[in-house]
Structure formats: structure tokens, C-alpha cells
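Re: export button greyed out
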Amino acid sequence: MAGSASVIEDGSTLSRLDRALFKLETFFALLSGLAIFALMILAVVSVGGRNFFGQPVPGYVDWIEQAMPLIAFMGVAYTQRLGGHIRMDILVGQLKGRALWLAEFTTAFFMLALMILLVWGTWAHFARSFDFDARLWSRDSSMDIALPIWPAKLLAPVAFSVLCLRLVLQLVAYGRAIVLGLEKPVAVPLIESAAEQAAREAETLQGAD
Amino acid sequence: MDPIDIGLWVSGGLLIMVVLGMRVAFAAALAGMIGLIWIFWSKKGMAGDEFWWALTVATKTAGQVPHSKVASQALSLIPTFILIGYLAYYAKLTQALFEAAKRWIAWVPGGLAVSTVFATAGFAAVSGASVATAAVFARIAIPEMLKIGYDKRFAAGVVAAGGTLASLIPPSAILVIYAIIVEQDVGKLLLAGFIPGVFSAFIYGLLIIGMALTFRNFGPPVSGFTWGERFTSLLPALPIVLVVLIIILFVYNPFGGDAWGTPTEGGAIGAFIVFCVALFRGMRWTELKSALLETAKLTVMIFTIIWGVLIYVRFLGFADLPGAFSDWITSLTMSPMLILVCILLAYAVLGMFMDAIGMLLLTLPVVYPAVMALNGGETVAAADSAFGMSGPMCAIWFGILVVKMAEFCLITPPIGLNCFVVAGVRDDLSVQDVFKGVTPFFIADGVTIALLVAFPMIVLWLPSLA
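Workaround output, generated via the alternate export path:
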């Protein structure tokens, strides 16, 4: 079961596009990370306010529910770029060369088909709560302090669109690898054996303890 | 075709996609999407001109799931627990914990190995990452054990096994995920994990002491620490204990009265403590940024599986597959206990090839209702049930058993990841060496699981108080 992998970079157009998109993905993922940090601070302030000043943060739960989509969706393409979405690679791990890239191309293709449908579906979900004529453009609002919900709903199609871009890029990279019979194509996560993965895991923690 | 047949075909297809290496989250979502289209279309008699309608309805049904399921306060516990884990590395708590464990317990036979088990268990609990913990302790604890004459294979086994104690002791992200998927009280599950987790650590400890008393030249006790040295070692390790305690106190107040708050608040305060310690130990923006990115990546991975699987679950509801599976399980003439043991063994096999989170999320929507039906239903009273416990208690018990099974698989061949990691860190050890060294712990885990099955009170005592 692979959790992460390494991506090869070079000076080709494909790799440059990959890195440009990765910048956007990293920015989105960092937003998600900062939202997690904000969630922590919010809870600490809320507990402190309740216990020491008898005054909880107004709309605490509303804010959490608004932050969750930010946390849950924004890093989705970043994680795909790094091969971080888990899968069972016991079978594909045995494949090499064209057979491997064909397998990767196929699964990425189905993923893209799914994500295009989900961009549509989540957009429809957003569109139902968005209305230019309503107060704060919103047809629905949160329970406690009446925050509009459409911005949080909009995050899903936005993040999923970036994932679609990422998948298109990966399809091109895998396609190129199939046609040219490449050993180690750029811009896609490469499968690592458990031992390689372990070695890298150990390396990233070097100096952290 | 009737809905149950569609359910079986789609679930079979999902299995094939997963085995062929499609990323679990998207395989589940795709299976759900295809299933929804199929079921809606078959309602219209699969007429050619109705396909577009079926596609639209299915897409809009599936499109509601990601936002509506993810925007929940209960799920906000998961990122805070993960944040604690990544910050814990920068708080430099590993060495401190090992040092404290050594000074306090290394005087028993096999003492350094026992200290390693407890230090590893403690850090793994807080970091929540079995594999990463094994990597860190392989570099801290193995050299010290080798220095005083431990067998290197055994030393490696201790570290690999100690790392598996992560997912029962709070904070445990995987227990939160279980609780959310089966719609049970998160707090009670977190509480329920505490005693089995500590219990597992004690079984490991007893095993090491027993081996040290039986075999000669095993590795001498380490003594000679003064009480002063012992107490000064406590302070740097304190944040770990504090985090575990706070999370428990935010779920259950042992002194009577209300718990201190919600589990999410407990997790957030735990993260804040570790954050302050990390700042104090010299963490700067670069380190914080990388911790936040790692936290975001793991959180997104987990949430993607959650909404992906929930799209599949939405479809399963239409197909009524879980109901059919429950009916089949309860119609079997075997004793319920035997069926439960078979289910657990199936998880042991599955866990050898799959990551714990993916495995649980994919299987629970079908398996969990069947287990509940086996016990007599969600709302059954303890007196009328097959396993002698009420419905909610059975949910807790089964959750702990399944998670323990999943951890057990981290040290089983062929792909017990913890063993690979320890071997990867140490150039002088092969994976076979580590598997050999971990064998006693493997057996000990078998005994622990048998005890948890035979004596459910070990699991259920603490949550029954709350």
C-alpha cells in the first residue's frame, strides 16, 4: 500500500507545466493546513473564553463547519501529485515499462471521468444555494450565526477542477511514457517498494527528532 | 435486474478496481457513481433515451455528498489529531520520552527493551503514526540496546512491535474514523481504546521480562539512576502524558461531573500544547509550514476516502446490499462467536495487503451492520444479545477488535510495513531479521486479541462508566 512517492523533474515543457501546477496545488494545500491551524486556535480560544470569561466564541460550530470543506478538499490535487492517495500497489508494483504505464493511464482516465462528473455534481449542489438576488447571495445559511453556506460549497468544484487539470497532465505524461517506452517518466509519482519507501520515510525524519 | 444484483456487481467491480491499483477513494466514489446511474437507469427499464436522465440524477445525488458529509463538527477531530502527530516531531519529544522510560523502568529484567516498548507506545499514541514512530525509535533505541548486548534482531523486533500500539491509545484518528462511519459516540470509542492499548503494552512488557528471565545473556537490566535523575527526566516527557490525559478528560471526567468539553476541543488543546513545546524547542516557520503541509496531505487523503466511500454507501442504501448481507449472516447456523472470529481472521488477511484506513472504510459499511445483526440488532439489550452486551457496547467492542487486527498486520509478513521501516533505517539488518525478531510479539498480539474477544470487559469497562 503506497502512501507517497517521488516525482522526477527536468527541463521539458511537461515538467515545467507540472511544477507550475504544483505551485498552485501547494498554495491550496497550505490554505488547508492553515485552516487546520486556525481550527486549533479557535477551539483553544473557545474553551478559554467559556471557562475563564464565561463567554464562548459566538458561532463556534458554524465556523468549524465552514472550515471543514477548506480542510478536506483544497489539498486534493496536491496529494494526487505526490501520490498520497492510498491504493493497493501489490499488483501494479509488479508491472514494468509499458504495461505499468498502461495500467496507470487506465486508472487515471477513469479517475478523470469520475472527477468531471463530480465537478458537475458539486457545482449543482453549490448552484442550488447561490442566488444573486438573495441576502449575501445566499439561499441557505448556518444554524447559529447565519453565515452563508455557498462559499464552502463552492470549494468542492474548485478543488476538484484543479484535480482534473492534474489528471489531464498525468494522462499526458503516462501516454508519453507508453508511446516512447520510457523507464522513468517525468511529472508522475513513481511506485516505490516498501524498502525504498521506508528509507525515504527515515530520511524525511532525519533531524526532526 | 433487481437492486441487490446491481449491488453485488458493482461491489465486485469495486474490488477489482482496488486490486488493480486504483486509488481507494476514487475507486469507491466511481463504484458509487456507476451504481447510482445503473440503479436509476434500471428503474426506467434501461431505455436508451433515459440514460441522460439517470446520469444527471446520479451525478447530482453524488455531488451532494462531499460537502454535506464533510462539513461536520465531529470530523474536525481528525485534522487536530494529525496535527498533534506532525508537530510532535518538531517538539523533540522522542529522546525525552525514551530517556524518562529508561530511568524509570530499565531496572527490570530486559529493562531497556521494556523501556523501549513503553516509550515507543507513548510516542506512537501521540504521533498517531506507527510507521514513522518505528523509523524514529529504530535510530534512538536500537543502538542503545546493541551497546549493552541485546541480540540485534530482537532489538529491531521490539521497535517494530512497539510502534503498532499507536492506534488504540488516544489520540487515535482511526478510532474517530470508525466511530463516524458506524455513527457511534466518538468519545466512548476513544475512551475504550485506552485500556486495550495499555494492556497490549503490558503484555509486550511481560513477554520481554519472561524472555529475559528464561534466556541467558539476554541483555542486562540498567540501574543506578538516582531519584533526582529520574524526576528531572520527567519534565521534558510531560507534554506527551499531558496530551493523552487532556483528551481523556475532555471525553470523560473520572471525578464525577461533566467532561471538560468536546473531543475536538481536547484534540485542539493537545495540539496547542505540542505546538508551544515545538516553538520552545526552536521550531520556525519553515518547519511549521512543512508540518502544516504534511498534516493537510494526510487529512485530505483521509477525507477523500471518507467522501468517496460515502458516495458508495449512498448507492449501497439504494441497493440494500448491507441488509441482504446481514440477513445472510444471521441465517447461518454457526455460532455467532465463530462467525465473529471468522470475520476478524478475514480482516487479518486483508490487512496484510491493505492500509488500515482504506480497509476499514471499504468494508465497514457492509460488515458492521452484519456484526450488529449478529449480536441481535443496534438497540438490543445486553440480556437478549448473542455476545452478552448491548448494541452500542458491541459497536465499541468490535471497533477496538478490528483496529487491533489492523495494527497486528503492520508486523505480519509479507508486507508488515513497520518491519520494512526498521530494516530500512538500519543497514545491518535485513527484513527477514526483523520479522524473526518480531515473532514473539506477533504471538503476544495473538494472545491479546484472544483475551479481548474472551473478556470484553477489558474494552468496555471504561466506556461503560462514561
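The mean pLDDT of chain A is 87. The button fix ships in the next patch.
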